[in-house]
Amino acid sequence: MPWHDAAVPARRDVSENAETIRRSFERQVELFSGPDSPFAAPANPSLAWIGPLDPSMIVLDVACGAAHASEPLAPHVRQVVGVDLTPALLHLGAERTRAAGIDNLLLQEGDAEALPFTDASFDVVCCRSSVHHFVNPQRAVDEMVRVTRPGGRVVLLDVVAPDDDCRDTYDDVHRLLDPSHVRALLDWELAGLLPDGGDALAYATRTTARLPVDLIFTEQADRAAVEDALAADLAGRGPRTGFAPEVDESGRTTVAFTTCILHHERLAW
Questions:
Q1: Is residue 248 in a domain?
Q2: Is 217 within the bounds of a domain?
């Protein structure tokens, strides 16, 4: 059942940050559109980041955006539910997945910090590349744990700051790229949001990917300020941004994003 306007009640008393996120991502729809989108799944996407899935599972994708993470999960499980604050992205995801013939994906509007689901509703709850947008990430992760069934799994994949020394500059530049960015955690801080922190993780890994910064500029980005900060970092005449800028063979500036994947298995009652 695809998402549509009539399924979403009017929202009241929405927080200032929720409105900032919604406005920001409404202006980024183009970035989520088409096969060249940096969020688009490859033809044969790896599901290693989320771990084993089986046809009986019901999966929740928190802050799902345009359903780029949800879409490749759907063929492997009974049902995927995606929740996000931005109707424009939900429309985009619904149109794309409907055209692809996916009929076990439900997308609905909702706030990660107050999930509209009863306790213990899902076998797997995942959140990909969104924790850094949350004003209260602990509340959001607590909500993810709450709606996970005993014996189920919470999976977090998020961008993390490379180290504490450059984190403030990293966040400043990230906000120049996207005003809805709040704070990049360190990997151990991300783990600390889960019950018992790093001591109870079923899986953890950290990787770094590089891409041309041009691919992530949108109309809301302060392009000149970002380029100045990266150029100063590259030349050694400004603070280290944490994006490790380099110039590739074609002369384009590339940046690095470090991500961390964490799995927490909720104990059976």
A1: no
A2: no
- Residue 133 belongs to what domain range? 5-160+180-205+259-265
What is the SS3 string spanning 84-96? ECCHHHHHHHHHH
Q: How many domains does the chain have?
A: 1
Predicted model pTM:
0.83
CB atoms within 10 A of CB 150: 10
213 in any annotated domain: no
For residue 267, what pLDDT band results from cuts at 50, 70 and 90? confident
Task: State the CATH number of the domain containing residue 131.
Answer: 3.40.50.150
Query: Which of 71-80, 201-210, 214-223 is modeled with the greatest confidence?
Result: 71-80
Give 139-191 pLDDT, tens digit per residue: 999 999 999 999 999 999 999 999 999 999 999 999 999 988 999 999 999 99
From residue 207, give the alpha-carbon distance in Å to each of 169, 187, 193: 21, 11, 20
Give me the mean pLDDT over the 73-97 stretch.
95
Q: How many angstroms separate the most distant Cα atoms in the chain?
A: 56
Q: Of 37, 57, 48, which Cα lies nearest the Cα of 104?
A: 57
Is a pLDDT exceeding 60 seen at residue 1? Answer: no
Domain assignment of residue 59, yes or no: yes
Q: Distance between CA atoms of 87 and 26, rounded to whole angstroms?
A: 8
- Residue 59 neighbours by CB distance under 10 Å: 27
Contact 240, 165 (CB under 8 A): yes
**Chain centroid, CA 15 distance in Å:** 19
Look at residues 207, 159, 155, 218 and name the one whose alpha carbon lies nearest to residue 183.
159
